[in-house]
Design brief:
Number of helices: 19
Oligomer: single chain
Strand content: under 5%
Number of strands: 2
Order of helices and strands: HHHHHHHHHHHHEEHHHHHHH
Largest sheet: 2 strands, antiparallel
Strand order of the largest sheet: 1-2
Subcellular location: Cell membrane
Distance between the termini: 56 Å
Protein name: DUF2029 domain-containing protein
Family: Belongs to the glycosyltransferase 87 family.
Keywords: Cell membrane, Membrane, Transferase, Transmembrane, Transmembrane helix
Helix content: 55-70%
Membrane topology: Multi-pass membrane protein
Amino acid sequence: MHGWLALVGLVLIPQQAFWDLDLYRYWMWLGLNQGEWPVLSGSWVYPAGAIIPMLAAAVGGAGGGSAYAAVWALMITVLDAVAVAFLMHTRRPDRPQGPPTTIGAWWWLAFLVLLGPVAMGRLDAVIAPVVVVALSIALNHPRITSALLTAAAWVKVAPGALLIALFVAVRRPWRSVVVPAAIVSVVVVGTVAALGGLPHVASFLTEQEERGLQIESPGATPWLVAGLFSTSITRYLNQPIVTWEIKGPGTQGAADVLSALFFLALGAAALLLWWRREQLGARMWSGGIARTELLVRGAMLLTLAMLVFNKVGSPQYIGWLAPPVAVALALRLPGWRTTAWLTLGTAAATQIVFPWFYSQVVSGGPGVTLTLAARNVALVVLLVHTVVALVRPLPPDDQPDALRRQERITSASPAA
């Protein structure tokens, strides 16, 4: 499966699919040959930790015509293989002796193929398997999970939001979540400061302010569809950040509103998760699936909030959806079938939009435009479905196997 992704990105349509890798290679060439490193020499759109995977791929060379992209593809294949290994050995906490299932691993691979080469040729492909590993071990090793999610957030910001779900799902959140996250952040910031880049260490937070309403974002959907019939709506290339955006009556206001709603949505998600924790009460710590479900479904909720209420909607962001679903399936958590199928559908629709028919998106082709709109509607449906799943009662079998066996014995006894 990864061989197919590499073939598409390296051979069939490299300019469309793996264009970002050429940018990564160029940044590393500047650093290695001219000493101009991102963050250290100036502001950068990514957190400082993104240098590490970009530099690792420079083993294949950083010059034009080098094997940089091939080494990157190999690196992503290895990382995804590690994620598959964890998915194949993940068990539910209430059934630790039960046989593992391969459904989570197969679903993960199917998702990657349906998402297409963007699942390999972007920085997000580095963090997705890290999040899979982190969620797989979260409740047994929350400190390691916190460190992994924080390290991933210093590569691409999104995994940092999942720390909220982890905070809610553990007994001692300050010691198990906040302290490890703080230690990792201190190490990263201290390293950047020692290398002279402290003034730019947070530049990734401000570099996004110049963005408008990106054409693929869910918030752009009304204008995207209206643009099929109205000449007042245009699609244009934001040259400084090489992103296609949409412009028309109200689009700048929508972008500004989404910038505020993004953080409000994360805050609302955090409050919902905390309410759920309090509502579950003793069931959170009974040894059943309540805590696991809260963690994984909470991770899905936070991910969807970042996607739906985001003025930026790059295709690779859809890859953020996969880790919670894959881990939920590997854990055999009930009630995830609809989420799993809808997520696969969003991946397939995203690949149709990018890279295969992206030129029709920017030129206003009706078929691909409506496919993109349907994908965005599916994201909203997923968000609503996830909220509903979090507020409805858990299934009655949320008990450890040993407790269920004891209850059956008790009910079968004459005294009962």
